[in-house]
């Protein structure tokens, strides 16, 4: 397939939310969270075909500004908006709520499960 004919299922990868949230980060000592964050941003950029969409920037915020606490919270909130935009581009219906993702940041990092579940709706 050429880039212009990619279907959402070809761009956004379906992942198991529990593996993304708990298992792979435990096995890789937390490195997989950064890899996952980079990959979802790249997939959303490819889906929306927006050359201005950030890919490495959000991951670097988590990596380098994690100590500030506010930087990652803003990044996760904006990720919720990007997932919402990707859902609109793929299905015309947005169900992701960035506020829910932000609140889940404070509950065992469950925003990862929530965001992956929302991304899986695109990959169906």
Automatic annotation (TrEMBL):
Q: Which UniProt keywords apply?
A: Membrane, Transmembrane, Transmembrane helix
> Can you give the residue ranges of the DUF4234 domain?
17-85
Q: What Pfam families does the database record attribute to this sequence?
A: DUF4234
Q: Where are the transmembrane segments?
A: 18-38, 58-77, 98-117
Report the superkingdom from the record. Answer: Bacteria
| Matching InterPro entries | DUF4234
Question: This protein is called what?
Answer: DUF4234 domain-containing protein
Q: Which organism's genome codes for this protein? A: Nocardia macrotermitis
